[in-house]
User: What shape does this take?
Amino acid sequence: MKSLIVLLPLMILVSCNPSTKESSISSSQATGGTGGGGNSNPPPTMEPRLTKVMSYNQYNMTLSKLTGINSSRASTLFEEIKGSLPADTNIDAMTSFNLVSKTRLADFYCGLYVNDYLAKTSFTNATNMKNHLLSTFLDYDVVSPNPIFDSLVTEVDNVLANNDGQNGKLIPSMSLSANDMNKNLSIMACVTILASTHITMIE
Amino acid sequence: MSLIYFFLVAFSFSNLEAQAPQHTPRELAKKLYVSLTGTQPSAAELNFLEPKIQSGQKAQAARDIIDQSPPINNGGAFYSVTIKDWATPKFNKQKTTLAPLNDGTATIIGMIRDERAFNTILYQDVMYKATGVTFKGGQLWYFDTAYPVIAGVTPSTLCAGLGLTSGQFKIIYTVPGSSAKACQRTKFTQAQLVAARDIDALYVPHKDLIIETNLVATTNRHYESISEQGLDLSDRQLLVSQGQGSKLHTSPAAIAGLLSSRAYGSAYFFAGTNRAPVAYAIEHFLCKDMEEINDTTIEDNRNRRDVDRSPGGSSTLYKNRCVGCHAGMDAMAGAFAYYDYLNGKVTYTPGNVVTKMNHNALFSAGYVTGNDSWINYWRVGQNAALGWSRDVTEGIGATSFGRMLADTEAFHSCMAKQAYEKVCMKKASANEDMARITRLTAAYKNSNFNMKSLFINAAIECLED
Assistant: This one.
């Protein structure tokens, strides 16, 4: 229950990420690839390679690879939820359950990853943590970042600042120590990246 | 004026549509990586691959991704994700990828990893499983400093320098293929070692791990254990080619590559009438389902007694529909007359046709299976297009049946189509797809049926789509 409370605002953040699904659909409509409707263009000679969604196996392996956490450490959770992760790469078959399960799995890997990382390197500031996470998980150049990551970077900044993006707090401070707060926010920032479309979608 | 403007706009849009999407070498490197492994590359991996793509070395870049040339490290995802997901649906009727690793998928992975001729996979004596030393059979002992001598071996001379502390155990084992002894410090506790010995587990020295149960003929735990431990399936010391004779079958005549694997048997020999192994072999390895090869023009003298000749009181339905599949399928299914799947094990009873082949005698004049002979009636008519070779019209047992399937043109083009659809992540439907598959099939045959090369070529074919 506790983890669900943490995951729900994260899911909203993740779902707000600019989706390449939308762009792929609009581009396929523009080329007359799907739908038809009032479009009078002739059908393409070959189905365009549309954006796909990572299947359960691909996503689990990706999380394992990017975090360096052996998939065996997540095997109990993975076996429990793999039926609710996407069975294949067909984006049209994707459901909200898939998103919940992807976020749960990312949360598990991120918990291990951030704990391991903070055990070796102390948390200095949010900017360092943001740059570390982004450059570890994505093809992200800290010096000259690609603008396609702008929206994600803003969300990661918000998470690490404990800002839900609507002038509220993601985690009420309550009795958490500064260390625990930083750790939890770092885990949430990690999930924001690993459950984002930059990772879960295949172009 | 407005007409000119209209044409200018129309031209500019049509020009946009005609252009193929332009990708930078870095984007292509990422696409290639994702296509082959299903995982996202790191920046360091892209830095390594980008110049290769830029200089036109796409095939080399693909091999680097698969073989994990440093700094690439994806845990063997090409095998444990892409190939496993491709192979797994072949071993269950639901065609789901959600099933665990099994001897069939492991064998496909091993054959592709080792670049062995894939056209032998339906009849060759091959099975991939983990290798190591078994606890049973006197090959492996364990002890700590409380056990100074085991079976005449003095630990102080064999295992000097291991530096055991209290509670740590060393394993002494006979090196496979020799009488020499080797020893190794292990992380396992005495309780874990006792439990492993009791289930005849496999100890893998180079990984210092225990893979549950070595009894692959009766349980799938061996392969599930490999999956659960997240092991790198590209590790050549882990999955090793072995014959089926030592582990699965006592009769050499039973061995027919994937068709005699435990996974195939559990899916298609269990219950039923043993027609399923034929129908699913044609579907998975020739890419044709029964509807597509339905041919009502061939003779039906091998149709068994359980096929109703007048379903619902109408012989027309039988003649116009049922016979189209049964005539060919029943004639081939004799190949599996001695196979069954009982108590978690593929059984083979040479000389004794399994009961299910001849039960439910709805039509007493129907064919009674008396041995494991089979006939291919689909060599003529519409299904001649499957490209049967060697003029094989009939045979004995599953081995020759598997060989006949693997020698068809349809088998080769089916493998090319499946590889293309897998790594390009789309259904092949357009003429251009078919032209690509034709090219891939030709290259596959010229490469001595190398499936790894086929997957690489397929990924490159659609890389710039």
